[in-house]
Amino acid sequence: MQPRRLLLIRHAKAAGGPVDRERPLTADGVRQAAALGAWLEHAGLVPDRVLVSPARRAVQTWEQVGAALSTGVQPIGDARIHDNTVDALLAAIRETPEDALSVAVVGHNPSIGELAGVLDDGRGDPVARRGVESGVPAAGVAVFDLAVPFAAVAPGVATLRNFRVPGD
């Protein structure tokens, strides 16, 4: 089996608003997301499948990230990501087709941070682990290598390779 990669991305900095789902990115959030896209491109971490929360801030985050990438991967909106639970994220990830080698999930805390914490098998980069443990800030990304198909993703089966926050 070819190795697979999972990128867990928290949406960039968002403005407040009366309706959570409609909160837009701030100007700083737009810059963060663009910087994240540039970093993903430079690091060779361009996903071939992207699952995005339907919340405006998550959609806008991927629009900015995607604009910086050399390939035009089209995001797939998935309401389960906005449910903001580890179980909902795992359910969405497990439906990934077998031919996908790299999946990005653009979502929200606490579920992005919680999933990043429980997926890690403890054999990855200790600096990245400390970053995840301190909390996934806006536009943060945790990069995992998987030795199992996406259908088998579960706690403790992924190796944390990198953790990045644009501008760090």
From TrEMBL:
Any GO molecular function: hydrolase activity
InterPro entries: His_Pase_superF_clade-1 (IPR013078), His_PPase_superfam (IPR029033), Mito_Ser/Thr_phosphatase (IPR051021)
Xref: Gene3D superfamilies: Phosphoglycerate mutase-like
UniProt keyword terms in alphabetical order: Hydrolase
Keyword Hydrolase: yes
CDD domains recorded: HP_PGM_like
Keyword presence, Phosphoprotein: no
Pfam families in the cross-refs: His_Phos_1
Coiled-coil ranges from the UniProt annotation: none
Name of the protein: Phosphohistidine phosphatase
